[in-house]
Amino acid sequence: MAQLWGGRFTKETDKLVYNFNASISFDQKFYEQDIRGSKAHVAMLARQGILTAEEKDQIEAGLDGILADVRSGKLEITSEYEDIHSFVEANLIDRIGDAGKKLHTGRSRNDQVALDMKLYVRDEIDETDELVKKLLEALQKIMEENVHTYMPGFTHLQKAQPVTLAHHVGAYFEMFVRDRSRLADIRKRMNTCPLGAGALAGTTYPLDREYTAQLLGFDGPTRNSMDSVSDRDYVIELLSAFSTIMMHMSRFCEEIIMWNSNEYRFVEIDDAYSTGSSIMPQKKNPDIAELVRGKTGRVYGALTSILTTMKGIPLAYNKDMQEDKELTFDAIDTVKGCLALFTGMISTMQFNKQNMEASAKNGFTNATDAADYLVNHGVPFRDAHGIVGRLVLTCIDKGISLDELPLEEYKAISPVFENDIYEAISMKTCVEKRMTIGAPGPDVMEKVIAENKKYLEENIALKKSKEDIPVTGMAVLQQQYTLAEAIEEWIASLKKEINS
């Protein structure tokens, strides 16, 4: 059992205790971040004269070799090591000898793991932001193509007033823009470097923490060593932002599931994002939308778990905090996978525009406009409200819409109505008259779409951490898998889950 401690102990840790305590099974995800942090730490130690230039070069070369071998599969991360820090340090010593034993000078596993988690979360925020941006681009395309696609707007799941598909989808565009801003806020707030805080009280070595922070792309060092090693606020904020992203996708998925039903037939989901039934050959199920909706609870669970874990932890570091990793890793994989699949699903989805408009007409969504017609002809609004209510009852009895009701029926209830009522309550008129900011009128929507386009073209993206490393000689560290490969693996596991 490879471990970084033991001098104070007289016998080995019980095997069950060791396995329960070990984190290598999941924190091996940190191997790139751990090596990146170690290289920055060594560069700083040499600059401060704590290590010689020769020792620095030896350690950096050894770390580069470990990184290359892990990436290529030549070196396997195994359970004989307690954690990723033990793995890196033990292999470094095996490769370069005594110089490797100086790697840990001036730091603790407490500030080391805090650094690794921050670097990992920062990288994942950047990748998630890119996925949300791609989703916004897909929503923007739908909006551009459907400014005149009429559909019912709902309140209480009841048809309320006519809107357009562009207007409806635009509501989700606003939600996901806010999601991006939350990710940016988290990244900015968390961007301080904990390395050099030691176990909890700093160190007696003359470290240059500002330099270490600069090497790793942070805005500066953390200001309190106890908070440095015990802070997981950024994890909680990330999981909260992720929960909100999932909630937004889940709401849209709920609507897609309804729109896909035989009763609505608003959308046709592409075969690539649907599955069938093992017994009913006619079925085409919206499984991806249902799974995204279902996996929302999984991300909520991660947030609740870390909040519960952190609520009773005294300063400074406690082993409980190891529980932040598995649930965060799972939430990250879940959110990124759901974003990719959801974007693919809505990008390939076909909209049945005629069914949408017919549903708006048959749901009396133009009733308010009929009342407004009367008001514009001198009828008090409260009287107009009652008159149109009677018209709706008449239409319900006859099984027709307001558009289909003969003029004599209108006049029988109120002589104010004339033939122009039909133009006044057409879907086109109902929508185009709504021209205030935020309404579905085409002129207003075109302005919103233009603003959206400008926002997307400006590429208000988060600064990429891998581009933040300004140190000559430091290799640009890439993720073990590309995002596309990671999503492919996630989709494969999802299909397996569906089939089972």
Task: Describe the 3D structure.
The chain has helices at residues 15-21, 24-27, 31-47, 53-72, 84-96, 109-145, 165-190, 209-215, 225-230, 233-259, 287-310, 324-348, 353-362, 367-376, 381-398, 407-413, 421-424, 427-432, 442-457, 483-499; strands spanning 150-155, 158-164, 267-268, 350-351. By secondary structure, it is mainly alpha-helical. It has a two-stranded antiparallel ribbon with strand order 1-2. It has a two-stranded antiparallel ribbon with strand order 3-4. Residues 461-482 have low confidence and may be disordered.
What key attributes describe this structure?
single chain, 500 residues, mainly alpha, two-stranded antiparallel sheet, 4 strands, 3% strand, elongated
The general outline is elongated
How many strand elements?
4
Q: Average pLDDT across residues?
A: 90
**Sequence of secondary-structure elements:** HHHHHHEEHHHHEHHEHHHHHHHH
Output the strand order for the largest sheet: 1-2
Largest sheet: 2 strands, antiparallel
SS field, number of helical segments: 20
Proportion of residues in extended strands = under 5%
N/C terminus separation: 38 Å
As a whole number of angstroms, the C-alpha radius of gyration is 30 Å
| Helicity level | 55-70%
